[in-house]
Structure formats: C-alpha cells, structure tokens
Specification:
The chain is α+β, with helices and mostly antiparallel strands. Helices cover 41% and strands 22% of the residues.
C-alpha cells in the first residue's frame, strides 16, 4: 500500500499550504503539521521550509516529490484503468486546455487514454481564454496558475518553471540586461494578462511591470516572436526547452525566474464522474513526470 504520509505530503503540495490541505481533510493545521514532521523525522530530512507566506520545497523535498509523484500517479492510473474495464467507463468528457500546452503535452497523451477507454466520447478545446467550469460546459480544465480556483478541485500535475529568455540576434542588437532595472530599456513580450511579471530573485519575490511590444492573446505567438528576435519573454520550460537546448533562445538574467508557486493543474468541479477522474489519473501519470 502507498504510504499515507506520502499521500499527505503530495496533498500539501497540491493544496499549496498546510492549512488548505487540512481544510480538505477536515483536520486542524497543527494535526497535519505534526504528521508532516513525523514523516520528516522518519526520513531524517526537512522536506519543506515553512514561512508565513508560503511553503518552499527543500532539495530533499523536491527529490521526494519527483520520486513518489510519478509512482502515485501511475498507481492511480492503473486503478482507474482497471475500474474502467470493470465498470465500463464511458460517456462524454469535455476538456479545455491552454493552446500551446494542450498541443504540446495534453493531446499527445490522449491516444493511450482513448485506447484504454474506447467508450469515452472526448471533446477537447484549445484556448488561452479562461473557462468557468462551474457553468457546466466543460468537465475538466488544464490550468497554469497558482491554485485551482475557488469552489473547484485541483490536481497539481507539476510546477510550471519559467525563465526569462531572448534570441541571440535580439541580444546582439540590443545588449543583454545586467539587472532587473535594465529590463525597462528592453522590448518585452507577453500575452494579454501576463504582465506584470512575478519573479523570484536573490532577494526574494519581485514584481516587474511593463508593456508587451506586441499585443496578443496567444502564448504561442509570444514564443515565436521571442525566437524571431522581437524581445525578451518569460516562458515556461515546457514551452521553450527545445529552443534553449538548440540555441534559438538563451536565458536572460538567470538569477531571476518565475515563481514556483505557479503550477499546472487538472481542475474539475466537485464530485466528478469516474470517467473524468480516469482522465486526471492518466494525465498525472503521463504529463506529471515531465514537468
């Protein structure tokens, strides 16, 4: 059986705080904190740094998360598949996902799910627009955010690690910024609603305001403009890792990065049908280990 204290650790990470996880379980925060301390004592390592504002994973905590999260997701996926075969899971599942993330990561994961559940009637919309799940037009949303949102259940698939980057041609023309303040002299690229940038730096959290050189509602447009040498962008590694690896983009101000509080969530309304939970388990097992 999967250690319940490992489940507790993952649930605290998914909820974003001990108090939020305690509310989900109907326990008091001190009781949950005591169980977390018991796990840390057992392992002989601190897993989370507790501050008044947030929880921060220690190296040991990050190692534990990266090790057990895929195992837990794979177990949940296996249970969902077996239950699906036994109960004949079928019916409509309506999914919405951000355009770029959906195309690059969600869609490639779907053939295996549809093969395991041939009676599922799947509909998927790729859009960067916010979708209100409580209106009932979609069953599941993939969201890149700090939390699932009020009234919803979120399954954290992983962290959306973001870096500042630009094309070598742009930096050759304009020069590389040497400080965060020098970004004011540069062309910034961001989709609607993505500025100001909330970053983590050597002195802690910092917010950088600005205006995008090009107005767009598409994150894919931002990536292509950055690769094309139009400015500096704050992009997720799941989106630009290949461009960074082959040199089309390079990191800028590497001491700064997007807050690790931003995660990739599979989000649904309370009490979803089994077919929705089966898809969540599958996405956790296939997408989660890559984030």
């Amino acid at each position: 059986m999967f250690d319940p204290d490992y489940d507790l650790f993952l649930e605290i990470l998914a909820a974003g705080s001990i108090s939020a996880a305690a509310r989900r379980r109907g326990l008091s925060p001190p009781a949950l904190s005591k169980r977390l301390m018991r796990l840390e004592d057992r392992l002989g390592a601190r897993l989370l740094q507790r501050t008044t504002r947030r929880l921060v994973l220690t190296p040991a905590g990050r190692d534990l998360r990266d090790t057990i999260a895929p195992i837990r997701a794979a177990l949940a996926d296996a249970v969902a598949r077996i239950a699906g075969r036994q109960r004949g899971i079928g019916g409509a599942v309506r999914v919405t996902a951000p355009t770029s993330f959906g195309r690059m990561h969600v869609v490639p994961a779907l053939p295996a799910f549809l093969g395991a559940h041939p009676d599922i009637d799947l509909a998927i919309d790729l859009s960067d627009a916010f979708v209100d799940l409580l209106e009932g037009r979609h069953d599941l949303a993939i969201r890149i955010a700090r939390s699932a949102g009020p009234g919803l259940i979120g399954h954290r698939l992983g962290t959306s690690r973001r870096v500042l980057c630009a094309a070598p041609a742009y930096l050759a023309q304009r020069g590389a910024p040497r400080s965060l303040a020098e970004l004011a002299q540069h062309r910034l690229l961001a989709a609607d609603g993505q500025l100001p940038w909330r970053l983590e730096g050597p002195a802690g959290p910092v917010t950088h305001p600005g205006r995008s050189r090009v107005a767009t509602n598409s994150s894919e447009v931002v990536r292509e403009l950055a690769v094309g040498g139009c400015g500096i962008a704050l992009r997720s590694l799941w989106d630009v890792a290949d461009a960074l690896a082959d040199g089309r983009l390079v990191r800028v101000l590497p001491d700064y990065a997007g807050s690790e509080e931003v995660g990739v969530f599979a989000v649904h309304a309370p009490d979803p049908p089994a077919r929705v939970l089966a898809l969540v388990a599958h996405l956790s097992a296939t997408i989660g280990p890559r984030l």
